[in-house]
Amino acid sequence: MTIQTLPTTPFSDQRPGTSGLRKKVTVFAQKHYLENFVQALFDVLPDASGLTLVLGGDGRYYNRVAVQTILRMAAAKGYARVLVGQGGILSTPAVSAVIRANAASGGIVLSASHNPGGPDGDFGIKYNIANGGPAPEKITEAVFARSKELSSIRISDGADVSLDVLGDSTLDGMQVTVIDPVAQYAELMGTLFDFDAIRKLFASGFRLRFDAMNAVGGPYARALLEGTLGAPAGTVVNAVPLEDFGGLHPDPNPVNAEDLIAHMTASDAPDMGAASDGDADRNMVVGRNFVVSPSDSLAVIAAHAKRVPGYAKGLAGVARSMPTSTAVDRVAKALGIPCFETPTGWKFFGNLMDAGRVSLCGEESYGTGSSHVREKDGLWAVLFWLNLLAVTGKSVETLVRELWTEHGRCVYSRHDYEAIPTAQADTLMAGLRAQLPTLAGTTVAGCDIALADDFAYTDPVDGSVSNMQGIRIILTDGSRVVFRLSGTGTEGATLRVYLERHEPDASRHDVEAQAALQPLVALAQTLAHIRDSTGMDQPTVMT
Ligand code: VG1
Ligand code: CO
Fold first, then answer.
1. Residues 411, 511: contact at Cβ < 8 Å?
2. The Alpha-D-phosphohexomutase alpha/beta/alpha domain covers which part of the protein (predicted)?
3. With a cut of 0.90, is the ipTM above it?
4. Is pLDDT above 80 for 1?
5. Considering 19, 91, 111, 113, which one is annotated as catalytic?
């Protein structure tokens, strides 16, 4: 076995987005496309001698091929050891947990998360640092810069490593340890939650339907829910990770998880429904006939955190991404703890958690998590809810309604316009930006605008600045419309329009969200001319 240096030509399109580099499998399958990106990463990282790397992915098409390539390149980089999930599988939160539990220097996550998979679907790669969280922009930008100039890759010519048997082997002097993908993650969950209380809940006949969407969450949910916690067999459905997610879109929202919603609205609906995404870092929580918005879920978890053993001492603070509703801000205020507003993407929470300033974070995009790892964590959120239901004896719906009664309801929706030609989307955003200086203090489409800006974030820990993170239009009553372009898509551009209105009046808490948000939709149309500039009459998806 020897390390080879092979000539390569750079690609110009390897800039990581909101969460790593995501492209069609067909793009990744180009000669040296994956190798170039990994080489750019390894070139940016310091010397690896003596260091441990964690490696695994969500099991989607191309995962196994990529794992073997990266192992060969890690050997060439000089890592002492790679911990790889059995079968090349690790959920995103498990990668984070394994990095932290083993003092690894970092990890590589192979996933395009909630994007569809299969030969015609998407693939992705992301680097996480020693704290277990996504690399900050300083690193992702350096990798991108390096990717545009590199001229060679270094790779071992060793044979494929067997990924299916637990244990050690060597590859060109590097130790490869195939680990159980679930064990360390499951152990961590046991330190946070009252497993006895959840066991009793299931023993009492409580029924959960957990839809793993044929993705990587299945093995984790089965082991913990049906194994450790004694939920009946069959509680976890679509539990076997498939390379193409069975053709489904592994994005847990009421539109894509329609089968789960159908079960939760049936006459024999279980007590709680839940789903996780491709890499198991997202979660959706559903009550009987009652969909929980992710922003409300975050607020409920914050409000009741002290009831859960891992959080019994209270939360240091909370954080949410800017477009996420302000429900958690209201809870934080009542608890007397700080609430931070960050740009979209989990990488912005890492510094706050490392500095001990927040213990709980969330996004409107079905992402919730805490400082137990540095990624959002789908199954963790479901366990949190189960723990709350067990110790309060209340239903999912009751916990949310109590939140609304106390703080008012933040009526919320996100409208996505997908696959817009990039130039059109850029023009639309530029048109919005051009209006910003003159909007505050005016009335548009019947809405009184108090503030209009392009969200900029200064990291309170390291002072780094991220500009142009989304256009915010805030009304005098606190209602908001936010516009931003997605950084995870692989086809054209996706415009996301986030709508929020606070409803203090309890007699109006049952209003249908889309109807209640109509005035804001009209405002969005007036300001952004979405129909005219995209030709789209309706959003592709409303969640
Ligand atoms: C989306 C979500 C964002 C989330 C990101 C990664 O990003 O809006 O909140 O952090 O996906 O989630 P964007 O740039 O497309 O809006 V996942 O589950 O793909 O790791
Ligand atoms: Co995900």
1. yes
2. 14-150, 184-286, 296-406
3. yes
4. no
5. 113
